[in-house]
Amino acid sequence: MSDETPSRPHPKILEELLDEFGVMVDDAIMVSDTEYDMLMAKSLGMDALVVSYGVHDKPDILKDAPISCVDSIKELSQWLLKCDNY
Asked: Are the C-beta atoms of 57 and 46 separated by less than 8 Å?
């Protein structure tokens, strides 16, 4: 699918995924370690969760106001288990 849609941060790929799985944007969350994904989610009004242990530097990925930030896989797992919004 990624070769058939504009590249990030254009939100079309997220729109296509939401449509394909029948999920409303309010029922989804972007989990990512890149600024591009944060911008995609923001442009759709989708909540975003930053994982700080990946590609981009933490200050750079936090600038687009994610709902939270986790610093390890264990913390991500705990966050997702506590979350009942998605």
From this structure: no
- Cβ contacts of residue 69 below 8 Å, gap of 6+? 49, 50, 51, 52, 58, 61, 62
| Total domains in the fold of the chain | 1
| Higher local confidence (pLDDT), 20 or 57 | 20
CA distance 42 to 80: 20
Domain that holds residue 66: 2-82
Instruction: Give the β-pairing of 68-70 and 47-51.
Output: parallel
- What pLDDT is stored for residue 6 in this prediction? 74
Alpha helix positions (H), 1-86: 12-21, 35-44, 58-62, 73-82
Please say if the pLDDT value at position 2 is more than 70: no
Indicate whether 14 pLDDT > 80: yes
